[in-house]
Predict the structure.
Amino acid sequence: MGGRRKGLLISAVLGLLLLGAVVWMAHPGDILARMGVLGAGGIAALVFNGVLSFSCGVEGWRWLLHAQGIRAPFPSVFRVMSGGYALGYSIPSCNLAGEPVRALWASREFSAPGHKVVAAIVLEKVLLAAGTAGILFWAGAVGLRGELPSALRQGVFSLAGAAAFIAGATIVGSTRRNPWALRCLAFARRFLPRWAFLERGNEALLEVKSALQRALSGHREAVAKAAGFVALMFCLNALAPFIFFALAYGRILSAEELAVFLALGNLSSLLFWLTPGGIGVAEGAYVGIFKIMGLPIDGAVTFALAQRVAVLPVVALGFFYLSRQGVIELWKWRHGNAGSNCF
């Protein structure tokens, strides 16, 4: 067994053990009772909300592709993006494992240059970072006024600042003549042999940078529409705890409670990449959040499991599309087009 497969297996086993421990602590009977209160209608509402949220993200990326001059129909973009999401969800990698497959698949599906597809993905990550920063700053201003220890409050603002810095540095760097990524590569090349892939890396960065420049300067309407759909995706994600608490607890979250929940959820999500799909880790993180909010931990496990059910349709569809497309065929296509302007 290869090192990567062994690491994935160990991560999955540890996640399942952690999940079993959390379920045991929360008492399986209490979890089933809470799930019964939530009901089939509540689970269906969460599934619908999850699929709708993902679809907004798909539409946002479709407009970013449009800003690169790539005309792509929604069903095709959904197919490509769900395949990449399913792979990233299943492999511990901060949801980045599926991005190379998404880029290759989109380049092949839409007959588009690789640097334009990568530029659309980079700009999508910038919008996601900006949205995360906005939520965390709002949460820190509204919901964390004395509600939490100062150290935790500082962690929220630090994460918000880091997300805002990444988004701002990428946008500013892409508009400069000599962005920071090229400077870092040029500095590293002073101490390395003249490898061909380093030369190609420099060219690729220039191509991506030029594509970002064109999108931000010449296609602002498409980028603005993409930002609107990403913002709508964040709103729908925030709606999930509203639905759960309304149906499982019969209570409506106040703005302060929602702010605390979203802030702590974003902080804990930094650890979700440790196991496939964050299994075990997410449940443990939500247990801590529910304890801080003074709620029984059976609700935390129920919410985490309901969230897994909500993303299951997208993950299942993604793997179905991947099985039809074939990851190996994508890599063969990549090597077969090594001299082209794709990848």
Summary: The mean pLDDT is 78. The two ends are 30 Å apart (CA to CA). Residues 36-331 form one domain.
